[in-house]
Amino acid sequence: MGRTSKLTSLQEAAAIVKDGQRLTLGGFAIYQRPMAFARELVRQGRRDLTIVGVVNAIEADLLIGAGCVSRIETSYVGLEKFGLARNFRRAAEAGTLDTVDYPELIAWDRFRASQEGIPFWPCTFLGGSGIVEYNKDIVPFDCPVTGARLWAVPPAAPDVVVVHAVMGDEYGNVAFHDRKMLPQSVDITHTRSCDTIIVTVEKIVSGREMRKRPDLVEIPALRTTHIVEVPFGAHPTSLLGIYDCDEDAFRDYATASGTPETFADYLDSTVHPPGGHAGYLEALGVERLLALRNVELPA
Amino acid sequence: MSTLPYTIEELITVVLAKSFKDGEVGFTGLATGGAAALYITGIPLAAMEFARQTHAPNLTILLAGWSINPVFSEIRELPSAEFDSGLQNLPCEAQMETYPGPYAVRRGDVDFGFGSGVQVDRAGNINSTCVGDFNKPKVRLVGSILLPEHMTCFRREYIMMPHHEVRSFVEKVDYVSGVGYPGGDAGRQALGLTMGGPEWIVTPKCIFEFDRAAGQARLRSIHPGIDPHDVLNSTGFAIDTDGIPTTQAPTTEELAILRRKVDPHHALIPHGGE
Question: What is the sign of the dihedral through the CA atoms of B16, B22, B24 and B29?
Answer without folding.
Answer: positive
